[in-house]
Specification:
The chain is about 40% helix and about 25% strand. By secondary structure, it is α/β, with parallel strands linked by helices.
């Protein structure tokens, strides 16, 4: 005696298409998130490099105009040109002597990354401190605390 099975189930073509479409959209979204994050990391790395170079140049007594010219050579083209006097709407480098005798050069780089479609606008900041311990008689007294702020505009 044979039992007849009544199979009324249809093949799940639509469900499989939806499953693969969802997986594909998930991978594409993940790809775009990785690309955006790598762009932000690249800009942050360039700002770190500018902070290191700027702090070292200021500790050696390089003038602000020469520091800004050197930083223009290593910055990514994402940011505007750097000027030392603030006479233009470009990125501005400002250095002030705080009056403290701490033998420090504090170099702060601030920038904004707003070419993003996934993440909100990223405010990026890098800070480097270099200590002037040796007596560098050719550049004068190095005991002052100098704070430089580089504001990068896009």
């Amino acid at each position: 005696m044979k039992i007849k099975q009544n199979n009324k189930m249809k093949p799940a073509y639509i469900e499989q298409v939806l499953l693969w479409l969802t997986i594909f959209v998930g991978f594409v979204t993940l790809l775009f998130i990785i690309i955006e994050f790598s762009n932000i990391t690249r800009i942050q790395g360039n700002m770190d490099l500018m902070a290191d170079a700027g702090a070292q140049m200021k500790s050696l007594g390089v003038e602000d105009v020469n520091v800004s010219a050197s930083l223009n050579k290593i910055k990514k083209p994402y940011f505007n040109d750097i000027v030392a006097d603030g006479s233009s709407p470009d990125s501005v480098l400002e250095c002030v002597d705080t009056g403290n005798a701490t033998y420090q050069i504090i170099f702060i780089v601030k920038g904004t990354y707003d070419d993003t479609n996934i993440f909100p606008t990223q405010n990026l900041t890098t800070k480097r401190v270099v200590y002037n311990i040796e007596d560098l008689s050719d550049i004068g007294d190095n005991s002052a605390e100098i704070e430089c702020t580089l504001t990068l505009n896009h």
